[in-house]
Here is the input.
Amino acid sequence: MAVTTCLAPGHNVTSCVVRELIERSMKGPVELPHFSREVALELRNFKVDVALIERYLKELQGAMKAVYPAVYRIDLELQTPLVIHVRNPYMPLEIGIAWHPYFNSPYIPATSIKGALRAGAGGPLCGRSPAELFGDVGAAGEAAVTDAFPTVSDALSADVITPHYKEPDFRETSARPTPLVFPVARPGATFAFLMGLEFPCDFAEVHRYVGAALGEGLGAKTQVGYGVVRLK
Here is the structure.
């Protein structure tokens, strides 16, 4: 079965990719860059079940309000492509992507969001220091964040990089670099996550704080312009 026949709603994308790679490997060597290119290009047409995600976020927000005095939904829009979990062992591609096994969707793990918030925190929020907010050695933080999920169905695209030449002694006329095509969350795609605080805090202040903290971007390759976000 061609990989393109199961990269669609109703099929688990991770299982599809793994199965296809195993089946091809049983027939002979698989050139991973070429396989990854095929998967990445086909995923551009994948549609996320946004209605399912919105129901989940609504239910989760209600449950969190029973635990945290303040719970806010944070919506963000990608300004540049997002790559995250490029070495995802469950998505065996040359350059992978974080893929949620239950919602069958790309996502931004909560650990990545919280790490970016902690790294970009410029000061206190409603009287709490970054260490108090996001935790420190031996102490849990007073802020909790969830995974972020797409809020548009067409969240995916493909990007390409060409690695440096691998030949130790090469000539430009004989070098044969292999472009790597990989899946990304596309610019313009929107994501949402929830943030729970163990103390009351005005949403406008939280919104400004999170927007500033995520100013350095999310995910991998932020130093070359990937993962730039803007809060909505």
